[in-house]
């Protein structure tokens, strides 16, 4: 009976991890689309990106979704930690996995390390942009909006930062590649009918996210550093 209860709890935890993970994937699509505005020609990008951020930060629905996002990030990380500890205690592998059609043994075994690196990236990332925007004293642009565009451009003038971001985006790509398939497997959608689609879409999604996010600091660096 105790064994069944703990199995049920583990399944609930895995389902919650899958759902929060997929929600975070959805956030990444929106976040990438918004941030690609940074690559517009300088004069348009500054006004447009700052106005966009201003509208988002004042919108009640977006605020509500942001709280769901913060809770999802924390829940996803904590559940991963609990599952890892439970598996260690049970004497199993570090991460409970179904051995069918794994993306790669190394990625599967090291999802915890990849996730922890992304968590560290997030802390630095939020401190640099989100915290300064919400609680710091950012400069203002000509239209009277907080000049988030200039904050981002200044950060990416630092080559070490750009390298750090690109490495973090590669780590994110590997984490998404396995995580995407793992989530669908947990939700029972990685079956004979759909597994090929899930596999190809997961791979495509990881590449688009990694390349899409990584080109932003690279392009901004070459456009503005030393200028
Ligand atoms: C080059 C890539 C990226 C750029 C330029 C960028 C830029 C920004 C900026 C300017 C903000 C502050 C805006 C605001 O709070 O409204 C922000 C917030 C945030 N970013 Fe990023 N970001 C990038 C990649 C990422 C990645 C890969 C992740 C996740 C792994 C991420 C997660 C977040 C989160 C969770 C927030 C807080 C959002 C909120 O408060 O609603 N970002 N980002």
Q: Would you kindly provide a written description of the structure presented here, covering whatever features stand out?
A:
The chain is mainly α and 227 residues long. It has a single domain, classed as Fumarate reductase/succinate dehydrogenase, transmembrane subunit (3 helical TM bundles of succinate and fumarate reductases), CATH 1.20.1300.10. It contains eight helices and no strands. Helix 5 packs across helix 7. The radius of gyration is 20 Å and the shape is elongated. The structure holds protoporphyrin IX containing FE. Protoporphyrin IX containing FE binds next to helix 1, helix 2, helix 3, helix 5 and helix 6.
Q: What composes the largest sheet?
A: none
The proportion of residues forming helix, as a percent range, comes to: over 70%
- CATH class label: Mainly Alpha
CATH architecture: Up-down Bundle
CA radius of gyration is 20 Å
Order of helices and strands: HHHHHHHH
Q: What is the residue-averaged pLDDT?
A: 91
Question: How large a portion of the residues is in β-strands, by DSSP E?
Answer: under 5%
Write out the CATH superfamily name: Fumarate reductase/succinate dehydrogenase, transmembrane subunit
CATH fold name: 3 helical TM bundles of succinate and fumarate reductases
Counting DSSP H or I runs of 4 or more residues, the number of helices is 8
Structural category: mainly alpha
Please give the number of β-strands. Answer: 0
Number of domains: 1
Model regions low in confidence, pLDDT < 50 over at least 5 residues: none
Shape: elongated
